[in-house]
């Protein structure tokens, strides 16, 4: 009994909630008191009907119910719990004569059953195990939710036509085993897309393994991919499992595949053809079941023409091709990306950020972003780190974002202003709204923020000016 008490006392977080349902009020209170003493939070229902009401209105981790009751019996409580609280576990209490019914309850999803008279030590131990199971499942669900948020389709941010097209394609190919070639400039998010494909595929419970082919020499790359045996080369002091073996059943992501040496390309092609790898220094083939996703910022057709990439490997890798647009091609996604990164990175650095000033937003929206999404993320992170007042402003921008443009000569500025002087205010308002919409890539919410008006006001103006 002491062991059970110690185990329960060590649990972190709020106490587990337990509902005891029993026609015998005295027996129910004994059970509740026994569990209360070791850290559980217990409610008591003295009839099956009351138990059903509590299940409908309350939140419980474990339900302990007598099997035989006059109104709603233990099987009825079990059925109601499975319907209303599918995460909760149900423990049955029964006499010797009702064991067949208890076994039936187990088949219907009960966690366990205990015989009368109750051994309170056993009751605590079984309840403790039930709570552990419930919390483990909830933790796994939460981890999965975070994975989906970070690497699922929700993590691929953008509502531009280009990104909607990418997302639709991802949803179609993710459930398959097709090899996918992801193309795009550096920083467009190729590995994030590969993670999303894996996370939404039947292989999601197996490893996702990434390898940058440009960062390694030919010998090291082959050892990383295929593994090696002891003595295969000077520093091979023991056998080593390669990425293919480690990713068995899952997904292998080959980043910068266009920089792979020709000799390694030949070996990779052989793996794709027969599903077997051979460790460096060995003659024994090993079967592997791996989905290959690859990415490059190079034009592989040009590389083939130059004799730097194998045509047959190219066609094996590009069963499906996804091209990720550069950030300048989808500028209307910049506001959503800014807000996403502020939320993500403010939490990471423990900062409270109220938002971005209109002037800083204009600078961020007008920038060309040669480093694409990765550069935008880094800029937002830098601004959050150096910020001191909770509002990201021009003084928080990194040096690369400083406005180095020369001021317009006085006469040029005067001429520009003179061209506007005398025009009707409605015409000027229409011009400013149109130009702001251009700057935000058509994002009305962002345009309203920059113009300092409400969204409904902007919508009314758009209709009025037929923009």
Features:
single chain; 467 residues; alpha/beta; five-stranded parallel beta sheet; 13% strand; disordered N terminus
Nutshell version of this structure?
The chain is built from 20 helices and 14 strands. The protein is α/β, with parallel strands linked by helices and 467 residues long. The radius of gyration is 32 Å and the shape is flat.
How much strand content do the residues show? 5-15%
N→C terminal distance: 76 Å
The secondary structure category is alpha/beta
Helical fraction: 40-55%
Average pLDDT level: 84
Largest sheet: 5 strands, parallel
User: Count the strands?
Assistant: 14
For the biggest β-sheet, the strand order reads 2-1-3-4-5
The coarse overall form would be: flat
- Which stretches are low in confidence, meaning pLDDT under 50 for 5 or more residues running? 1-11, 404-415
Instruction: List the total number of helices.
Output: 20
Radius of gyration: 32 Å
What does this structure look like?
- With 467 residues, the protein is an alpha/beta fold.
- 49% of the residues lie in helices and 13% in strands.
- The protein contains 20 helices and 14 strands.
- The strands form four sheets. The protein has a five-stranded parallel β-sheet, sandwiched between helices. The protein has a five-stranded parallel β-sheet with strand order 7-8-11-6-12.
- Strand 1, helix 2 and strand 2 form a beta-alpha-beta unit.
- Helix 1 packs parallel to helix 6, helix 18 packs across helix 19 and helix 19 packs across helix 20.
- The longest helix has 32 residues.
- The chain is flat and about 85 Å long.
- The N terminus is likely disordered.
């Amino acid at each position: 009994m002491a062991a059970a008490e110690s185990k329960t006392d060590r649990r972190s977080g709020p106490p587990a909630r337990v509902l005891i349902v029993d026609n015998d009020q005295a027996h129910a209170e004994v059970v509740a008191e026994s569990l209360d003493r070791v850290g559980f939070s217990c409610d008591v229902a003295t009839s099956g009907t009351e138990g059903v009401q509590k299940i409908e209105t309350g939140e419980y981790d474990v339900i302990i119910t007598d099997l035989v009751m006059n109104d709603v019996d233990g099987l009825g409580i079990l059925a109601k719990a499975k319907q209303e609280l599918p995460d909760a576990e149900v423990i049955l209490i029964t006499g010797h004569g009702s064991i067949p019914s208890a076994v039936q309850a187990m088949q219907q999803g009960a966690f366990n059953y205990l015989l009368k008279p109750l051994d309170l030590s056993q009751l605590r131990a079984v309840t403790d195990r039930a709570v552990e199971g419930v919390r483990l499942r909830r933790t796994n669900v939460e981890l999965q939710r975070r994975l989906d948020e970070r690497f699922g389709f929700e993590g691929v941010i953008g509502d531009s036509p280009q990104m909607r097209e990418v997302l639709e394609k991802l949803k179609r190919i993710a459930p398959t085993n097709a090899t996918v070639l992801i193309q795009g400039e550096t920083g467009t998010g190729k590995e994030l897309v590969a993670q999303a494909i894996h996370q939404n595929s039947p292989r999601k419970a197996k490893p996702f393994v990434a390898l940058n082919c440009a960062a390694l020499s030919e010998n090291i790359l082959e050892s990383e991919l295929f593994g090696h045996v002891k003595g295969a080369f000077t520093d091979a002091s023991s056998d080593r499992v390669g990425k293919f073996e480690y990713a068995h059943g899952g997904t292998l992501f080959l980043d910068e595949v266009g920089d792979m040496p020709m000799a390694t390309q030949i070996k990779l092609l052989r793996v794709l053809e027969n599903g077997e790898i051979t460790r460096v220094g060995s003659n024994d083939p090993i079967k592997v079941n791996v989905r290959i996703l690859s990415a490059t910022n190079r034009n592989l057709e040009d590389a083939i023409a130059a004799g730097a990439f194998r045509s047959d490997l190219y066609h094996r890798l590009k069963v499906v091709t996804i091209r990720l647009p550069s950030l300048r091609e989808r500028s209307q996604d910049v506001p959503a990306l800014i807000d996403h990164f502020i939320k993500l990175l403010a939490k990471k650095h423990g900062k409270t950020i109220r938002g971005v000033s209109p002037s800083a937003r204009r600078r961020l929206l007008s920038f060309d972003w040669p480093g694409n999404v990765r550069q935008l993320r880094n800029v937002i992170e830098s601004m959050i780190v150096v910020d001191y007042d909770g509002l990201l402003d021009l003084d928080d921008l990194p040096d690369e974002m400083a406005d180095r443009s020369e001021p317009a000569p006085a006469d040029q500025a005067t001429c520009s202003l003179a061209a506007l002087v005398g025009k009707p205010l409605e015409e000027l308002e229409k011009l400013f709204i149109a130009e702001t919409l251009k700057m935000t890539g058509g994002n009305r919410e962002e345009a309203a923020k920059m113009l300092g008006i409400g969204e409904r006001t902007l919508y009314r103006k758009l209709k009025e000016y037929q923009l």
